[in-house]
Design goal:
about 1250 residues, Jelly Rolls, five-stranded mixed β-sheet, elongated, disordered N terminus
Length: about 1250
Amino acid sequence: MLKIQSKIVLFSLLFLLSNFYSYAQNLVLNPSFEQTANGCAGIIPAEGMIDLIDWDNVSNNTPADTCSTPDLFSTCNASLGVTGVPSNALGYQCPRTGEKYAGFITYDVTGSYREYLQGKLSTPLQAGQIYCVAMFVSLADGVPFATNNIGVHFANTHQTWNAPCFSPFTPVPLTPQLNYTCVFTDTTWVRLQWDYVAVGGEQYIIIGNFFNNGATTTANTGQPAFPNPFGYYYVDDVSVEAGSCCQVDIQIAGNTDCDSWLADSGSGYDASFCVTDASINLTATSAMNGATCSSTPVSGTWSGTGITNASLGTFNPSVAGSGVHTITFTSTMGCADTVSINVNSCSVLTVCKESNGDLTVSGGTGPYTWDNWATTTITPANQTDCTTCGGTWNPGFPPIVPPSCSVSSCSTPGYVNFATGTTVTPPGGATQIQVTDGGGNVLEITNLSTLPNCSASCDATITAAGPFCINAAAVNLTAAETGGTWSGPGITNASNGTFNPATAGVGSHTITYTLGCGDVDIETIVVNALDNAVFSYASGSYCLTDANPTPTITGLAGGTFTINNSGVINASTGVINIAGSGVGSYTVTYTTNGTCPNSATFNVTITSSTDATITQAGPFCQNATAINLSAVSPGGTWTGTGITDGTLGTFNPTTAGVGNHVITYTITGACGAVDTMTIVVNPSSDASFTYPSGSYCLSDPNPTPSITGTVGGTFTINNSGVINASTGVINLSGSGLGSFVVTYTTSGACPDTNTFNITITNTTNATITQAGPFCQNASTVNLSAVSPGGTWSGNGITDGTTGTFNPTTAGVGSHVITYTISGSCGSVDTMTIVVNATDNPAFSYASTSFCLTDANPTPIITGLAGGIFTINNGGVINASTGLINITSSGTGSFTVTYTTNGSCPNAQTFNITINNCTNPLPVANFAASQTNICEGACISFTDMSASSAVGGITSWAWTFTGATPSSSISQNPINICYNTPGTYQVVLTVTDANGSDDETKVGYITVSSCTPPTAGFVMGDSTICAGECVVFGNTSVGATSWQWTFENGTPLSSTNQNPGSVCFNVAGTQEVKLIVSNSYGVDSISNTITVLEPQQVILGNDTSIQWGQSVSLTATGVINGVYTWSPDIDLTCSTCPNPISTPEETITYTVITSDSNGCVSSDNITLFVKYDNVIFVPNIFSPNGDGANDILFVRGKGVAELKFFIYDRWGEKVFETTRLDVGWDGTFRGKVMNKAVFVYYLEATFIDGSEVTQKGDITLIK
């Protein structure tokens, strides 16, 4: 199996703005360096460029000019090896095409020595035109350096440059327009290519490295630097073509460039296979982009005989068959390449010995070449011969140092040709020979004595076999002689010749039988498919009363029918005798009578008839219990209004409602039956009635009922109650105390009964016993009434059960007190209690301290006058005026008390001190253990007074306003308790031998209620839908801090007094808790919110439809929902669950649904509207009037606008159209065009607004 590097075919077409078309024609003259002026005779080794046509070296190009001289490599120089092919002084490489290629130096380690190739173009480049510039390049594998900077310079005129022959060398002073900037290391042919926009007028192409060593990047290849210290590259197939680069290259795995060239050069094909070779996947590669240093992955389609997978490029030699086959790869970009693959039979060669000792070959194809194994003498002239002799090849440095081999000659065994033909005479003494046929098949014979005589029989004729049916048993094939090998489809044993029709499959199969003596025979065996035995009856089930069924034969007619289980059937027509067969299950078999008989079966069931007659039922009252209906034959289905179970036939009169209802009983199946029945449902009476109350007193009027249902019924009462049977009036006094049940029963066909419970109780007296008036400071009293058991209420009531009234709590004024006895026989009474304010006993003296020598003080009464004054401690006072006799009272501390004589007497005190005023008085002072306390707390006081008298302070007088006790004479009183919130003063009077002093601290003690907070809150709603929010408001009392928690809420917590709106997304019962606190304690409260899970509306997946199609939108998941669709464009309904949409373009619909709980959900769906965007131009047509393919049309679908142009090879427009239905008939200006290839260009706009441009070629044939 051989392969050669594929040839490149470019299909790039360029469309110019001037509407000019040109073919992809290579403008480079002599692009593969094949044309020389004098053939091999004019090619001088290492100086071949001198004889090369249309190329020079950018120098004066004379034989004596050895500076900047590129090289021409040719098979003409193979014997010298310097610039030979494939071996040469710089490495080993075969031409990519033809027999020659060029080479040049891109780097010299000793200096910036360079070589350049200058070629000529057939026509100057056109300004603004894009050209694809390409060349195939290979690094010489015998040099030590690889480089970058393989560049191209275009010039308008021929460039000449006298390169320096000695260091320092300099590159040619030109700047490349195109340059490969990456280090190139491939030693096989790789295509470099660039897109180049012409300036205009360029007619010469120069190739080489235009940069010095400092600007050149190198890589070491591992080869020795002597004798070629260069970077050196071979080049072949240079091209400049109009249009952007578009190129692919078919590769056949397993071969190198040289393998292909050496094996297949001149053979007329690119690779060869045996027909028995395994399949191989061909590959296609793209060129290396000179601007990006990368290649583009190639994808496309393979075609040609033998291609079994158009995507993978699988080539199967056995499918292709013998012959030369053209394989084409077309990339998705429109580029293509072809190769020619030769498939031969690769027949087995056999040799026999004639009676005279001659040898005769058979098998294969002539001509035959015979070789004898002998010793030959080799004089090495190239690297291959040198290596064969075991020597070392020195490529030298031509022309200064010629190449040479370390061995001058050698003797080596090998095959030497001695004859051609079918029958030949072997050389004397020959023991080992080989013969090669024209197809390249080789037979090697290592021992001539073992060859069979030609006179022996050798007959491989196969005994004819078949045809076979595909289900036939395997058979062993036979031939005239045994011992050979069998091959071909269906052969399962190559020795026995076992042929299995099922393995081979339906069709004609080529079977080959090969004998060792060389004879081969081929036989074609036909395998036929089984007859088509398909048939069917109109149904698989029949009743005994049905007509006899006849089958329909869709396969091969004329067969025979049979039936099992004693069924009766016509063997020819297949008509089943239903009555004769009877009830049962049968299998009918149809057997064909064709070449390959086959059978098929069909199952038939014959059943008896059924009776659907319904058993009459009803009429029913509407409130009657559900019943199960019945019919003669069971197993049917019940339907109709009121049917709640279609299988059991359950009829519910309540569900059916009043009226006549048609009930249907259906037995399905081929032998089914149907019956109907009308059931009457009468309305039920309504015994609904009520009394104004369920409880009455004996003294109440006799109650009369209100009948809200059907009138005319009868009333009854239990427990000896007395009632009017017609009117239902209850005689309360006649019935007496107790509980009674009143029953009302209607009359008619469907009576009804209802009950009402009545309680008759005794009467109560709520008259209150009068009390008051009271003074505000009076003690509490318990009020009373005639009948006990009631509830007291009103201002001043501190106990509603005992009727406790507190004048102090009530306050001054008139207060309405209410006494309520609840119940149906309860009563109410009210009373006004007056609370008078206590007298104002306010009075004071001008001072609290007096001397014995002072005048007697008289008080000032600011309250109610006319009261009585008293004084303690032996003081002397006027009881009416309050005048204190200081002298008679003497020194000391005294308390004066004034008591009023009004309706609510009251008293007040005033403390005074009488001193002798001759010695220093004591200084009163004190401190409390606490000054801020809670209600009910007790504290102590500490005396801090000072005295200079002998014996110190002798008495202490404390006054504690609002406290219990309210006074003390202890020096340091304890357990002074305050039970009422407020701010209170404390007064201390101290006395010693010199006199008295007092200290009054106003607002000294602050008493607080110290009440813990009471938690409370309100919420906007207690039942919401998931995703909704609730507003919470704080109603707590006395709190100074708040801690909210919201189960599954957002937020989950808050410390704000009023947290505002909180959202709940999780369905279920969610707890809300508030914890409040102040300085005196903590309180909490919890409540719950019911979060309902919305029924989620579902629209399903997005859908793609063709333009113009309709689609039904289905909203599911919500029961009894309210639907709103938006937008309502192209919808048959915007408020129903299943509207139909016929959109003009891609659209997204949203449906919002509210379920029975008011919960809202939404979903959306996108309808993608697709347009069939198809545009296609055939690449060949034949306007020859035969009625087939005479007119070239643009084919397409979904095209809204079109511009289509056709040009000839000179760029002249020969046809244009803007319509798909207008095509080209192959004429121009009224004349029929000759066979040729034309170029087309089109622009199309599709319905969806997308645009496409396309170009290609069209072949006109006759």
